[in-house]
Design brief:
seven-stranded mixed beta sheet
């Protein structure tokens, strides 16, 4: 069984913000695989289904970003999955261009408070991740204001492509094709 957690903030005011791209990817997976993400358990909205022949739980923590680890810990404890092999966390990354994705099997939080909290609750940094680029913060912008801001129309088009890539990457990871997924999505973009 795989637990796929998309990070974001609950409540209408945060819908469509840079910090909520994890929720967006969960919504896309849920739509594609007809999984209802409407069960309130483990400090999350969650749903159960099948993707690529594997049982999955899709989860959107409702703890607010900085406390995401509470929900992830509760899910892992209840479902007894191996966090290093069967947990996939999807979240925003300001060091990647809009819609670009990166796959990691481990690593630090890189300044992301949701990931910091998950690492603290897990007691380790080894878990699968899909980072979805939301673009670099403009100079003199407050980071919180930036990640809680909305995308422009042009950015949203790039993000829609990024969500498709993230869904595809999640499908490959669930099938155990982690190296192939990294090879496909972690290459440097060719200069034009």
């Amino acid at each position: 069984m795989f637990i796929i957690v998309g990070l974001g903030n609950p409540s209408k005011e945060y819908e469509g913000t840079r910090h909520n791209v994890g929720f967006e990817v969960i919504d896309k997976l849920a739509e594609k695989y007809n999984i209802s993400v409407d069960i309130k358990k483990h400090h999350a909205l969650m749903g159960k289904g099948m993707i690529a022949g594997q049982k999955v739980i899709l989860a959107k923590p409702q703890t607010y970003m900085n406390l995401s680890g509470e929900s992830v810990r509760s899910l892992l404890d209840y479902y007894k999955v191996d966090e290093e092999e069967e947990l996939l966390v999807i979240y925003d990354d300001i060091s990647l261009d809009n819609g670009q994705i990166r796959i990691r099997a481990k690593g630090s939080a890189g300044g992301h408070n949701g990931i910091k909290n998950i690492i603290a609750h897990l007691g380790g940094q080894i878990f699968l991740r899909i980072k979805v680029g939301v673009g670099e913060k403009p100079p003199k912008y407050d980071l919180a204001d930036y990640v809680l801001g909305h995308f422009s129309k042009a950015e949203q088009e790039m993000m829609d492509e990024g969500y498709k890539k993230a869904v595809h990457a999640a499908e490959l990871i669930i099938q155990g094709k982690i190296t192939e997924t990294m090879n496909e999505y972690n290459r440097k973009k060719k200069e034009a």
